[in-house]
Amino acid sequence: MADMGFDLKGKTALITGAGRGIGREVALQLAAAGASVMLTDLDREVVIETGSLVDAAGGAAKALAGDLTGAGFPEKLVNAAVEGFGGIDIIVNNAGYTWDNVIQKTTDEQFQAMLDIHVVAPFRVLRAASEVIRGRAKAEIAEGRRVMRKVVNITSISGMDGMAGQAGYGSGKAGIIGLTKVMAKEWGRYNVNVNAVGFGFIDTRLTQVLGEEIDVQGRKIRVGVQAAVREALVAQNPLGRVGSAEEAAGPVVFFCSPLSDYVTGEVLLCSGGSRV
Q1: If phi over 0 gives left and psi between -120 and 50 gives alpha, with beta otherwise, what is residue 155?
Q2: Taking the alpha carbons of 156, 4, 41, 76 in that order, is the dihedral positive or negative?
Q3: Which of 71, 80, 72 lies closest to 12, judged by CA?
Q4: Where are the domains of the chain?
């Protein structure tokens, strides 16, 4: 596997939304650096495929498919990581999707769904992991050892500067920034760095030309952007192009690595220089 310039051997990373796109690329890059990866996604087939790609490249992966917004699933996921790999050192709260509309056409269900996946689910994952993380850290500190752990939450320029038609998505992505900053202060004493990466226009199925439908809890949700809007966003980008999933994973992996051991409570924007 590729040399990442740092060694994450002996570390376990829990990655949500790992079936496709950015989440899959994060899993592959963390595994390339030596981490074992606990993967989850709503879609069983694609998350198993990600695990197979990690295994084929010489890494160690376990996959658990399920609905991250289910009240009991985050705890089940954390338990699976501890049982499978012995602990948790890195958490990447990446799972998410868009369900857009102007505010007068946004239903309560639609708005709540965006909050549930983008801020409530990450909160539950962190709460479920808190006992094992705090317990391990207290023991290490008592022994005079500093062992750094990492949390990376995924936000968006929509949560930082707003995007028309994204009342729910933008609110959820703003909420995760608040949770990031709170947890950086709560968990600093346990040697946990908590940061966020905010994405701009990254080439995933959520930013393709409008048309594809995704199935979320039996709902058929149309995702993507209008062709003219996509063209305009590319034209306005200082780099003149859409970012790749591989490029998007880079800042996430940085925050998971020893390179960020004295960085916490920060939001790093990965957008090619664009704020729209």
Answers
A1: beta
A2: negative
A3: 80
A4: 12-199+255-269
**Cβ atoms < 10 Å from Cβ of 74:** 26
The single residue listed with the structure tokens 């790093």 is 268
pTM for the full model?
Answer: 0.93
What H or E segment, with its residue span, contains residue 169?
Answer: helix 167-187
Give pLDDT tens digits for 89-134.
999 999 999 999 999 999 999 999 999 999 999 999 999 999 999 9
d(Cα 36, Cα 119) in Å, to the nearest integer? 25
Fold of 12-199+255-269: Rossmann fold (3.40.50)
From CA 167, how far away is CA 102, in angstroms rounded? Answer: 7
Catalytic residues: 169
Lookup result for tokens 């957008």: 271
Dihedral angle computed from the Cα positions of residues 245, 247, 253 and 258, in that order, rounded to the nearest 10 degrees: 180
Q: How many CB atoms are closer than 10 A to CB 239? A: 13
- Averaged pLDDT score across all residues of the chain: 93
What the block records as the tokens of 193 is 């760095």
CA distance 212 to 218: 15
Q: Find where tokens 């990450």 sit.
A: 122
